[in-house]
TrEMBL record:
InterPro entries: Ion_trans_dom, Volt_channel_dom_sf. One of its GO terms (molecular function) is monoatomic ion channel activity. The chain crosses the membrane at residues 75-94, 100-120, 141-160, 202-225, 237-257, 269-295, 420-438, 450-466, 478-500, 536-561, 611-632, 644-666. Residues 83-300, 431-674 form the Ion transport domain. Residues 1-23 are annotated as: Disordered. It is a multi-pass membrane protein. PANTHER family: TWO PORE CHANNEL 3, TWO-PORE CALCIUM CHANNEL 3. This is Ion transport domain-containing protein.
Amino acid sequence: MQGAAAEDQGGSDKKPAVTSGEKFQKGQQSLCQLPIDDEQLQLAAAYVSDAQYNRNIQFETSPQAIRFYKLYNHWSTQGITYFFVLVDLLLGLFEDPAVYLLPIWVTSTVEFMCLLIFGLRLLHFSKITPTKVFWKDAKNICIIVSILLTVMDMIIYLTLTETGYFVVRWSRILRPLFCVNFTESRQLRRAFRNIRNTLPEITYVFVLFMFSVAVFSLMALKLFAKRKLKTGEGAPYFNNYLDIFFNLYVLVTTANSPDVMMPAYEISWAYSIFFVIFIIVNTYVFMSLFLAVVYNDYKKHLKNEVRKLVYMKHRKMIEAFDILKVKNGTEFVVLDSHWRQLVKLVAPEIPSSHRELLWRVSDEEQKGFVGRECFIRLADLLNIQVIQMKERVHPLENCMPNMYNSAVSQVIRRMVKHQGFRYTYDVIIVINAIFIGGDETNPLISKAEWVFLTLYLMEILLKLFAYEPRAFFAKSQFWNWFDTLIIIAALLGTIVNTALKSSGGYSSQQVLDIVFILRVLRLIRIIDSFQRFRVLLNTLINLIPTMLTYAGLVVVVYYIFAIIGMEAFKGRIRFYGANSSDPAAKYCGNLALKGSQFAALRYCKNNFNNIVSAFILLIELTVVNQWHVLATGFVKVTHLTARIFFVVFHIMVVIILINIFIAFVLEAFFVEYSLARSAVETAVERKIQELEMGDCMDHPAGNLVEAMETNENDFGNTGDKDLKSGLRFKIASM
């Protein structure tokens, strides 16, 4: 060691001393020159993409498997799968009982093609996952079994139909399973898992609730059976235990209140005490308890789901980091060049300026590399929607600079941007609402409509004069688009309406209806004038994508019940048309309904004669108003056991599904309505402000437009001065 030190000292006379800063720069240069294997980069990109989209798929890591995996997750292959799932579900429109009946061979051929696509999709999935993992996955087994059962049912159905036998297409209830069990439907499966996990706690409350109804039913039997009371229709009142149980169950939903109480109440007011206590205990206490239990369990299972997702995302990002890491001193890092290549592979659609912004957030100290913790944030960074804008000059300022910059022009622009301009038009909207509620045939109101349209057109033109047009009509400016489209549509509708009237041959009520609707829609503009209204509306809009998951869940449940209902009740009830003179129209084509409340209320169109009518009927049952009348109608034309179908539907949809949906909306609304931001969003926002590239305006003032088609050199490594030339960023959720 001493010899080496002496040698170093002796050589110092010949070589200049190297500073620590120069050593660091040389080290950085050597690190940046390290190449990375393309296959390894593709594998890391697959892991990051999985973390970004919360995919938890175990896939093979061979180059061929990664290419297959990338193709499997491509929007085109996913779109094809969704398209054929939708086609498979829509076959219900064309099969007996049908909205428009097609030959059996046509629907069978289309269904076979759908099954073939499903099989190919599953085969594709088997090529990217380990064999043991594939066969242990329950959703893959479910798809295979569903395909085999459907093919078997199709063969039996076609064979027996040709020989003249009546056959039930029972495999149609399996169609929604394809929608649920494909890998792309992970959100739908999570919703089903929430239901499955919540069921045990709900079951205890439900059993106690049913016991309460049973006890009250027994008390009602003892109270009223021997009094020989009659209902309003002349039927015996509360003399059969099963009928009492059903009627009291309906009373919980308030659908038959106060009708069910009236025969007893007419005898003595004291009997009303029984029904009041029943409603308090079962309608208010137990139904509230259902919601409380569902909400509590939903929150608990949601936290578990989030923990699993966070763990999975963290694990995927660590695997990507381990592939790209290089050693820099005592720590492992990912280099700038490798990071940029990775982001370009994972999100090729974002421009280089956006990538540079994300890099600045990740590499706060501009070292040229990021550590593990900063790298792991990449998946969250990619999920933040950043609106990129570019400063532009107003077209009028380019064409007529003297006019646009004149004193009069500046006064007009200041006036339009002033809050008083908005308040003035708010008052105009309120006055317009009063006129809309008036009589359309009044000449004063008709002329006033042209005045309001002129004022609204002036407003749009003045705003286009004050604001740069491309900024005014940017993708993020929803209310500007809404105002303009509504005003233009109302103007065109009013012109057409006036032209038809003046021609003397006016007969288009549809045009008039559209004009009325457009006039009413203009009133929605006032929502944008109140900050709290905007917050609430934006919160609801942000919830829509997640709410679509539960909408899909409802469609799946509805489809299954619709298919069962069509097979059980098709043709039992007929609708003859609103103006039919056929005597059978009075009892819906079934003598069993003659004199029934179902026929008297003209409910004949509420039937299971095709899938559209079935869905509408199921929606009516979900609303629960008069659902007992609908159920009783189908009981009369079939059998008493038909009540089971309607009670099970009520339990599944109204008690379980709707309560879970309410719990989801409450929790999601609390999260969205909160003003708190995530740490990653805060970091991005802080970096935007540090670079002085933020858009501080709530409305499209200045000359800002969407400029996502940025050139590669828009935001390069040319220094902060060049970075800020004309570019602005804004987080979409701000």
